[in-house]
Design a protein that fits this description.
The complex is a heterodimer of chains A (112) and B (113). Chain A starts with a strand and ends with a strand. In chain A, strand 4 and strand 5 form a beta hairpin. Chain A has no helices and eleven strands. Chain A is globular and about 45 Å long. Chain A is mainly β and 112 residues long. In chain B, 0% of the residues lie in helices and 53% in strands. At the A-B interface, strand 4, strand 5 and strand 9 of A face strand 5 and strand 10 of B.
Chain lengths: 112, 113
């Protein structure tokens, strides 16, 4: 069974620090990977996508993908209290008729 | 921006009732999905559809059915609601393939009493 694994946390970091969130996946078919942020009581919001090995940066967020080791990570620089949320990792093959597989999420708490 | 609209934010139903959860997207996406989310269990796929009138079972289809008569609308049906179906239900859509990730609706918090 295909799985996406995340440490549930909570991960606690002080304001201004770098938060590092990690995710591993079990299958080699997955080609597209996504990070979602979910605030308590709200629906998930897409914040990063990555398809190729290496790093992808968008503002304070950097996604990293290593297909050989089957892991994906999200770095949040200069963490803010507003970054406190649950972060969901998801992956899937890039083909019709399939669905993403989601991890259970890592809860991040940024203290001011 | 793509908009995925779920008809109700909160819903309270009685055990045994037939429940309809509606989801509409406005960007001509081929794929639509229904998930439920429970504490500690994460997002679990109930059903998805990659075309009009097409449906595929997800990981937990028991007790649910779906309908997709039009491309923009994907309905989740609880044939006879039970208390263990109390949950947050999330609808999502995406274009063909999984290149762009999902856009989620705001969710429906269903309570079955």
């Amino acid at each position: 069974q295909k799985e996406v694994e995340q440490n549930s946390g909570p991960l606690s970091v002080p304001e201004g620090a770098i938060a590092s969130l990690n995710c591993t996946y079990s299958d080699r078919v997955s080609q597209s990977f996504f990070w979602y942020r979910q605030y308590s009581g709200k629906s998930p919001e897409l914040i990063m996508s990555i398809y190729s090995n290496g790093d992808k940066e968008d503002g304070r967020f950097t996604a990293q993908l290593n297909k050989a080791s089957q892991y994906v990570s999200l770095l949040i620089r200069d963490s803010q209290p507003s970054d406190s949320a649950t972060y969901l990792c998801a992956g899937g093959p890039r083909q019709a008729g399939t669905a993403l597989i989601f991890g259970k999420g890592t809860t991040l708490s940024v203290s001011s | 921006d793509v908009k995925v609209t779920q008809s109700s934010r909160y819903l309270v139903k009685r055990t045994g009732e037939k429940v309809f959860l509606e989801c509409v997207q406005d960007m001509d996406h081929e794929n639509m999905f229904w998930y439920r989310q429970d504490p500690g269990l994460g997002l679990r796929l109930i059903y998805f559809s990659y075309d009009v009138k097409m449906k595929e079972k997800g990981d937990i289809p028991e007790g649910y059915s779906v309908s997709r008569e039009k491309k923009e609308r994907f309905s989740l049906i609880l044939e006879s609601a039970s208390t263990n179906q109390t949950s947050m239900y999330l609808c999502a859509s995406t274009p063909q393939g999984l290149l762009y990730g999902y856009t989620f609706g705001s969710g429906t918090r269903l309570t079955v009493v």
